[in-house]
């Protein structure tokens, strides 16, 4: 019995019952391993989805909203749609995330969510005074068929009557329709990017030199690295949905003012001026391109949909495009950083060349990382793209043709299929998110965490993987994992 | 099996620390999973087409596949959600068909998110729906209950303990030493076959008195199984739990054993506890957790010499608040279902030295310079029972006495 060990300790020491002392047992479900029926391994042949590598559409829209200054997502749905998303933000960023809920109950399912929205918006505006509210719909409100626009009009009318017409200047509204059955969190972000620009951006007729960037699910550290590169380039720029100072904030002493708002985030004004931009860049083709394309169609702002700037080739591509469009040459400082990354790659090539690597995650991360591992001379084996994506597949196949490798691409599949392949044919390394920990332990192959979600290691959100310096850090993590796992100490020093 | 679009399955997968010790094989000779979380997520991942044309067929196929992939599975539970409830998929029918086909129990739980105020309604629904299904299934399969000759006069159930971070490890031996046999824990580290034996116990020991009292009461009505309400947090409450249970059996020997256990356990933890009490004495604490834990923990905080200044719950009912009011000092602030704004106001007004709360609030409150403790899943449990109390005290001490708070207050 597992409990015996603990109860044998006659006096419980100060440190209490540590996990080592707990030693909880493990009981197998069956006497021995039974492999799954081979015909049920490919996800395409199954009705059941086992271990998805993607989450729901509203999540992506809420992520985007939290990158806007004093903006609060208002979720038109049941409470779980808010609670679970907040859990996920807390877990990934270790930061507060304020999200409002329409709190659907049975009456909302029967009569619709009008009352919930009208009252909810009023409460939110008068207690939090947000600069922007993004109304994010959910499965339930979409199935019921809530007419959000008319509900919103009614809410505004009611508030005008109650608080006077000034209240209408207080808060801007964006409506994002995100029924989760129509796509994953990646599509949610994509839709939000479009809806924000559609609702807010204008053209004043005075074109600016500003470059706009829609980052996708890049982390705070990545955004800071991106800004650093753009500062070196000497261009004037705006990062939309900038979570770097909303989901990674200092503890500066107390007390904070209430209600708590993080200091950062893209200003509403920046969205408004997007119509005058010199160009707009989507750095994640699946999460944000819809926004860039809309702006281009509406205001003829040149739009560039590029792979995430991860690794040498992808970062080169971004900076060359920025240089061409802005007319600014690539400065020496940027070449220096590029040189440092190349130097690190040259120093470590014996550790990376010909190593077989499996990848899993969101399409934009995986597509860009595939190119980076190929640049390192590694061989991608099994690639899981959690959300089905034509653009990621195209980018991956282009990379593989250039670098002459033939991985198995599981586009839009689930982790069960991918893990089964890894068990049959273990790679030397896994690049994936925190949900890949179990498979990494089970087949004893090291995991380098990247992408979304990473919640089980500290500091990941601040450590960039994009740009040349980010590439160098990412390379170091990859090589160190290989060294830890595959090399005895006497082969690591020279 | 979560019958829903992908997110509902994704978020409920491996999040709260309801731990268990049964595992599937990952490969020959390798058991799955380093942690003791649920390793896999099974969902129908409903798409737009499924929502339009109905998902019952897909659910049935998915469940049959899941059973084929996991031949060791002893049964299944289907949960429906907002979207699949709104389109009217008949999950009970699917459960019956699949159960007949695979010869294993399949329970369909109707749990759309909009069906109640909070997860409290979900607990309630599960309790009543599961009980009804259990009765029905036992009637058809009488062999699933304990046979007369297997029963003992000391068979008990623990109701409403979810084995959060192995809470059952310090708790179960207490009752075993008392001479009892625990046949089922509803539901912590439990097996489906154990759940079928729920009606065979002589007594139900009810821990969480919000989420699981319902089934204990149903068992009392249906099978005349009495219940004893206990709290298994803190020294005095755990001692009282043992005394109350022993007194229910009314055997002198058992009551003597209860005293023996209390004495032995107190001696084992008192040196550590007094070390912590010395350091925590006089600190002000605010509590915001699921309803019963609030009134369970008021006493626990007092045992550590701390002063409770505010109590909040998300889904406390009237009776929970009555118990809270009985236990706190006059002047304590009590808020029902607070939003973040109200929590922030509470921090300003009450100035607690510690806030016991969950994951979502803890990072917000830290921004105000107030230490927090994850009181839903714990920082490093178990916290229940006598021995768990030392872990609880240790984590509170770590939170309150970490040097970072005074560094943050230093003028710079």
Automatic annotation (TrEMBL), chain A:
Annotated keywords: Nitrogen fixation
GO MF annotation: an example: nitrogenase activity
Residue intervals passing through the bilayer: none
Keyword Metal-binding: no
Domain Nitrogenase/oxidoreductase component, chain residue ranges per copy: 56-482
Keyword Nucleotidyltransferase: no
Record Gene3D superfamilies: Nitrogenase molybdenum iron protein domain, Nitrogenase Molybdenum-iron Protein, subunit B, domain 4
InterPro entries, alphabetized: ChlB/BchB/BchZ, Nase/OxRdtase_comp1, Nase_comp1_CS
Family: Belongs to the NifD/NifK/NifE/NifN family.
Stored PANTHER family: LIGHT-INDEPENDENT PROTOCHLOROPHYLLIDE REDUCTASE SUBUNIT B
Stated name of the protein: Nitrogenase
The species this protein was found in: Thermosulfurimonas dismutans
Taxonomic path: Bacteria, Pseudomonadati, Thermodesulfobacteriota, Thermodesulfobacteria, Thermodesulfobacteriales
